[in-house]
Target: Ribosomal protein-serine acetyltransferase
Amino acid sequence: MRPIIVKGNLVSLGVLIREDLKHAWVWYNDRDVRRYLSFSEEIFFYEDELEWYEALRREKKHEKVFAIIENSSRSLVGLIGLHRIDYHNGRAELGYFLAKEYWGHGYASEAVKLALEYAFDWLNLRKVYAHVFETNIASIRVLEKNGFKLAGRWRKHQYVPGEGFVDVLMYERFRA
Ligand SMILES: CC(C)(COP(=O)(O)OP(=O)(O)OC[C@H]1O[C@@H](n2cnc3c(N)ncnc32)[C@H](O)[C@@H]1OP(=O)(O)O)[C@@H](O)C(=O)NCCC(=O)NCCS
Model:
């Protein structure tokens, strides 16, 4: 049984286990998922995933990555992480993705809510921030529904295949 760290209604955040990597590896290479992530052109080998997992275990003070678990089926549906955790300044960067077949069910919105709960209540951070490309409407909606505010933008900063250069939006959410 996988330990659950933060429980929600539709999804929960659980401990990432080695068996998750074979799913994450496929999704991480899916161009529709990749398009709005950094290094969209990149191709990942399974060994890269294993190395990433080992590094994550070693660096766990500054990186917390969770498995997003669908409550009804107990299946892995995506990953969500708090990165660059900076305890001195009380902040971390949020990132997430879901497998395509699970899009559109409100899962990311709830996963972000749960990750914020973990960041504010358990890590005692004061601020979580995220970078999102201006054409990633679903992700912008997920952030805004969770109380993130637009803090600034880098203009025509990121090349998105099929879309050209787009603005990168900086979103931030302070602890209430
Ligand atoms: C972004 C992503 C995580 C969203 O996951 P999801 O579980 O489908 O999101 P949710 O269902 O919780 O919410 C999506 C919201 O965006 C809305 N939305 C989705 N596509 C939209 C579109 N093209 N135009 C307008 N709104 C849209 C949905 O209606 C929903 O809003 P609502 O709850 O008000 O109806 C998922 O699409 C994904 O993994 N994308 C690839 C990776 C990625 O972009 N990660 C984030 C990088 S910043």
In short: The chain has five helices and eight strands. Residues 13 and 68 are 5 Å apart (CA to CA).
